[in-house]
Structures are given as C-alpha cells and as structure tokens.
Amino acid sequence: MSAKKANLSGELKKYFGFSTFKGQQEEIINNLLNGKDIFVLMPTGGGKSLCYQLPALISEGTAIVVSPLIALMKNQVDAVNGLSSETGVAHVLNSSLNKTQTKQVFDDIKNGKTKLLYVAPESLIKEDYLEFLKDVKISFFAIDEAHCISEWGHDFRPEYRNLKQIIDKIADVPVIALTATATPKVQDDIQKTLGMTNALVFKESFNRPNLFYEVTPKVNIDKEIVKFINKNKGKSGIVYCLSRRKVEEFAQLLQVNGINALPYHAGLDQKVRVANQDKFLMEEVDVIVATIAFGMGIDKPDVRFVIHYDFPKSLESYYQETGRAGRDGGEGYCLAFYDPKDIEKLEKFLAQKPVSEREIGLQLLNEVVGYAETSMSRRQYILYYFGETFDPVNGDGAKMCDNASNPPKLKDATADLKKTLEL
Ligand code: ADP
Ligand code: MG
Q1: Distance (Å) from CA 327 to ligand 1 centroid
Q2: Rounded to the nearest whole angstrom, what is the distance from the C-alpha of residue 242 to the centroid of ligand 2?
Q3: Ligand lying nearest the CA atom of residue 73
Q4: For residue 419, how far is its CA from the centre of ligand 2 (angstroms)?
Q5: Ligand 1 proximity of 294 Cβ (cutoff 6 Å)
Q6: What is the pLDDT of residues 274-318, one digit of tens each?
Q7: Secondary structure, 3-state, the chain
Q8: Taking every annotated instance into account, which residue ranges of this chain make up the domain Helicase C-terminal (predicted)?
Q9: Ligand 1, residues 5, 12, 50: which to mutate, most atoms within 8 A of Cβ?
Q10: Is 21 close to ligand 1, i.e. is its CB under 6 Å away?
Q11: pLDDT in tens, 27-83
Q12: Do residues 228 and 259 touch, judged by C-beta distance below 8 A?
C-alpha cells in the first residue's frame, strides 16, 4: 500500500471518524488529488459528499462546490464545520448574506481557512463573486447533483447549463461531477456539457436489493392505502401524489382514518413545511403525504415504505423516490398505483408544452408505462434502464418484486423490455 493511501485512511478517521472507505471513495479521492477530472455515478446514500469533502479538507486552497438547493448546502456546511475545531472551514456564498457576512466569507477564503465554498450556480455568475474567485487559490470544482445539467434528468436546472464557461473563467483546476442519476442519456449530457468526455468514470451499481417493488392497478386506492398503512402501523412511510390538492386531501383522509399523517408540498407556508418535515424526521409523525418537493437531500434511514398514489413522470423519478425507503438496508416496500388514464392526463398536459420538452416528456412517460405494464423482473427492468445487466434468477434481490414472487402471466418478457427501451 502506498504512503498516500495509508495517509488518506488517517485523514478519514481524523475528520469523519470512519475507519474504512465506502465503495470506490478512496480511488476517487486519490485520482482527484492527482489532478484528474472525475465523474461519479453512485446511488443516493452511497457516500458521494465525502469524495469531495475529504480532498477539500486536505488540499491547499478552497474547493468550490456547486449544489442546487440552499437547504441542502446549509446542512452540508453545518456538518463539515462540525468536523473541525476551526470555524469557517465551510461557507455558503449566496444572496442571503449581508455585506458584513460576505466580507467575512471572503476574508476566510483569502486567509486560506475556507476549504469548502458552497454556491448555487446562479450565484457563481455574479460579477463581484467571479472577480473575487479569480484571484484566490481554488483547489478543485465539485458539481454535486450534476444531473441538473440535463433535460433528460429528473431535476433540470437551466442555470447549470453554463457552468463550464464559468468554471473556465475562474480557474484551471480539476472538476469532479457527482450524481445519483445514471441513465446513459443523462450521463452523456453531463459529460458533454461539462467538457468532461475524458474524465475518469466511477460507476457503482444502482441495485437496491432490500427494496420490494410492487405495481398494482389503481382501484379502491384510498381504502387500499389505509389498509396497507394500518398493517404497517408505527412504521415510517411516504405517500407521493402529483398535485398539491391531492396531497392536502389525502393527508386529511388518512388523519380521519386515525393515521398519524401530515402533508408536505411547496405551496405550504415555509414554517408549516419545515415543521412537518421535522416532525417526520423526529418520528412524531409516521406518514408524510407529499409532492415530489419532498425528499431531495432528506436522509431518514428507516423509511419502511414509499407509496405512489400517482405514477411518477419518469422511471428515473420513480427510482429516486422509491430509493428513499430502506436507506439503512432494512425493509423497504415500494408500492405504486397505476392507472393508464393518469398517463393520458399527463400526455394532454405535455401537449401544451414546447416541442422539445414535449418530446422528452413523452419518451420518459413511455418508459415508465413500460415499467408499470411489464411482467418481467422489475429490478431487472430498472437496472437495464441504468445500463446495468441483472440476473433475474440469481441476482441480489431477484425475488424482491411482485412479478418475481408472484408471476402474473407467461409471456416473452425480454421482447417486452426491448420494445419499450429501444424506441
Ligand atoms: P450521497 O450524496 O451519495 O447520497 P452522502 O454523501 O450523503 O451520500 O452519504 C450518505 C451517508 O453515508 C452519510 O450518512 C455519510 O456520513 C455516510 N458515509 C459516507 N462515507 C462513509 C464511510 N466511508 N464510512 C461510513 N459511512 C460513510
Ligand atoms: Mg449527495
């Protein structure tokens, strides 16, 4: 073992208190420290943050971390600052800071104290930030949630599109891009947009063997969900609905049925929203009924079920949302209700959109319908979508879906898969 590697383990222990690296973390960090551009595709919970936090802490200068959500950044900054006895090791730079606070951040960077600077892409283009950052020592750039660059991703942010030009203006340093989205289209888009086609790619399996996948027709849905939750009394769960109105209605319906549930969506008053989320995290409430606004960056390890009241708009979203179950490796039941009429409604909605958006939307819907209607192993289907092969007989978690444990009907499942995915 090289001296550098032994050293890295020491730093891991010192800052994070962990004795071993997870997955390919060590190799990723070593390559980044050696000046390589890196692309990391790892499922949620895989330990992506450490791949840039640790090298940032031990490098000279400041690493710039681009991240899409202010709430996410704040959590991370607090966590990093908790790792070190020094203050100002990590900062957020955005428009919420007043002049004095901004000056403090700038001073800490100049003095070499700040190892991680979290910014949203829309802040990075501000002229005075840009001018300042050009003149200080930058160790590397980390682009977290890099799928936000791609229209094929589940969370496209136009501000991410111009990142490459901004980075080039600031410094000529290595870039590490990280995402939990691994569809080949998104991957390709990210690499091209960031000019990283020569980057070293580290991809981990997206298989979540402890999750059970079930898709069921949307009939008597309210009753069915109440029954399901009552059977799982006291366990933590999330119910996803597409509209805010549905979220409110259904949370009420659950409450009326004696279930400890609260709503969550972006239209709620900020205070209520945060309070409801906290109650869920603190286990004062069992079930959260939510739109997709809920979940990004929320790390509750013991969510035991994720129910889709409405089918999601892409297989990618489905994977991300179901992925919030069983983070601790324990039981995670993923139950989705499917009605072709819901898909028709979504298609009508897409018809009003600009052409490119419509085409992407329709293709994503096609793929998710294929998944809903398939009779093959759901795990195999999902993993195929992420560019992985999976053995539906002996693979890890092979029995963990409705089609595997209770095959619906005999038909040529492989032809089915090809038809849907090679459109
Ligand atoms: P991701 O961004 O890939 O979703 P995170 O960076 O949030 O994942 O990490 C998920 C969890 O794994 C965190 O609780 C983190 O502390 C933990 N973790 C990361 N690396 C290690 C490690 N080497 N050993 C133990 N736990 C780790
Ligand atoms: Mg992350």
Answers
A1: 11
A2: 24
A3: 2
A4: 34
A5: no
A6: 999 999 999 999 999 999 988 766 778 899 999 999 999 999 999
A7: CCHHHHHHHHHHHHHHCCCCCCCCHHHHHHHHHCCCCEEEECCCCCCHHHHHHHHHHHCCCEEEEECCCHHHHHHHHHHHHHHCCCCCCEEEECCCCCHHHHHHHHHHHHCCCCCEEEECHHHHCCHHHHHHHHCCCEEEEEECCHHHHCCCCCCCCHHHHHHHHHHHHHCCCCEEEEECCCCHHHHHHHHHHCCCCCCEEEECCCCCCCEEEEEEECCCHHHHHHHHHHHCCCCEEEEECCCHHHHHHHHHHHHHCCCCEEEECCCCCHHHHHHHHHHHHCCCCCEEEECCCCCCCCCCCCEEEEEECCCCCCHHHHHHHHCCCCCCCCCEEEEEEECHHHHHHHHHHHHCCCHHHHHHHHHHHHHHHHHHHCCCCHHHHHHHHCCCCCCCCCCCCCCCEHHHHCCCCCCCHHHHHHHHHCC
A8: 220-366
A9: 50
A10: yes
A11: 999 999 999 999 999 988 889 999 999 999 999 999 999 998 777 788 888 888 888
A12: no
Q: Is 50 in the pocket of ligand 1 (CB under 6 A)?
A: yes
The count of other CB atoms within 10 Å of the CB of residue 242 is 19
For residue 360, report the distance from its CA to the centre of ligand 1, in Å: 32
Taking the centre of ligand 2 as the mean of its atom positions, its distance from the CA of residue 291, in whole angstroms, is: 20
Residues 365-404 have pLDDT tens digits of: 999 999 999 999 999 999 999 999 999 999 999 999 999 9
Residue % of the chain over a pLDDT of 70: 94
Q: Which residues contact 385 (CB under 8 A, 6 or more apart)?
A: 183, 315, 316, 319, 367, 371, 421
Q: Which ligand is nearest to the CA of 48?
A: 1
Ligand 1 atom having least distance to the Cα of 44: 4
For ligand 1, atom 12, which residue shows the shortest CA distance? 47
Q: Is the CB of 225 under 6 A from ligand 1?
A: no
Best of 8, 9, 49, 145 to mutate for ligand 1, by most ligand atoms within 8 A of CB? 49
The preferred substitution site among 18, 67, 143 for testing ligand 1, maximizing ligand atoms within 8 Å of CB, is 18
Is the CB of residue 57 less than 8 Å from the CB of residue 15? yes
Q: How confident is the model at residue 419 (pLDDT cuts 50, 70, 90)?
A: low
